[in-house]
Specification:
Order of helices and strands: EHEHEHEHEHEEH
Structural class: alpha/beta
Distance between the termini: 13 Å
CATH class: Alpha Beta
Number of helices: 6
CATH superfamily: Formyl transferase, N-terminal domain
Bound molecules: 5-O-phosphono-beta-D-ribofuranosylamine
CATH architecture: 3-Layer(aba) Sandwich
Strand content: 15-25%
CATH topology: Rossmann fold
Oligomer: single chain
Largest sheet: 7 strands, mixed
Number of domains: 1
Length: 192
């Protein structure tokens, strides 16, 4: 896809924790020019703080028991179908979607990752960037494929790593740009 279909896209955001990117996407979806509606939040974690944003904004949410991944994915696919979801945005979702899931969903799945991909796939990105004495870090929004943190890059933004940065301060800097990057990447992806 990557093109509009004459109406706003029904979007589902998948989270596992804090949900600050979910909040930025909810805010973006409320701008008149945005072409997405957030209709559904999926979390694998009932303690996920981000669920409060779904509640506050009256967005339907489902907590998915992931003790059996196959079953969990089948349940999620059912909810996606029921809510006619056109687009998934992963935002701090700590489960890897199977290739079967990606194939069956058929529509695009986006993810935000806190590094300048292809550098630092996986976890502990900030620690690794600092350890390697990188001058820059950043965030990437990309299409999801069955390989972790690969898939076409839609948009990236850099931040400078200063000598004084720790894992925590860098994480904060990167998160701040993530909140602008995800909406900007969706705009670019949808060519609006
Ligand atoms: C973000 O850093 C995102 O890039 C990564 O997980 C974190 C989620 O943060 N995939 P939040 O839950 O959106 O606050």
């Amino acid at each position: 896809m990557g093109k509009l279909i004459g109406r706003n896209l029904n979007t589902s955001v998948f989270i596992s924790g804090r949900g600050s990117n979910l909040l930025s996407l909810i805010r973006y979806s409320k701008i008149q020019k945005s072409k997405i509606n957030i209709n559904l939040v999926i979390s694998n974690n009932k303690l996920s703080k981000g669920l409060k944003y779904a509640k506050k904004n009256k967005i339907k949410f489902h907590i998915i028991n992931y003790s059996k991944k196959n079953h969990a994915e089948r349940v999620i696919l059912k909810y996606l179908k029921k809510n006619k979801i056109d687009l998934i945005c992963l935002a701090g979702f700590m489960k890897i979607l199977s290739s079967g899931f990606i194939r069956k969903f058929k529509n695009p799945i986006l993810n935000i990752h806190p590094s300048l991909l292809p550098k630092y796939k996986g976890l502990n990105t900030h620690r690794r960037a600092i350890q390697n004495k990188d001058k820059f870090s950043g965030a990437t929004v990309h299409l999801v494929t069955s390989k972790l943190d690969t898939g076409k890059i839609i948009l990236q933004k850099k931040v400078r790593i200063s000598k004084a940065d720790t894992e925590q301060t860098l994480a904060k800097k990167v998160l701040k740009i993530e909140h602008k990057l995800y909406p900007a990447a969706i705009k670019k992806f949808l060519k609006v």
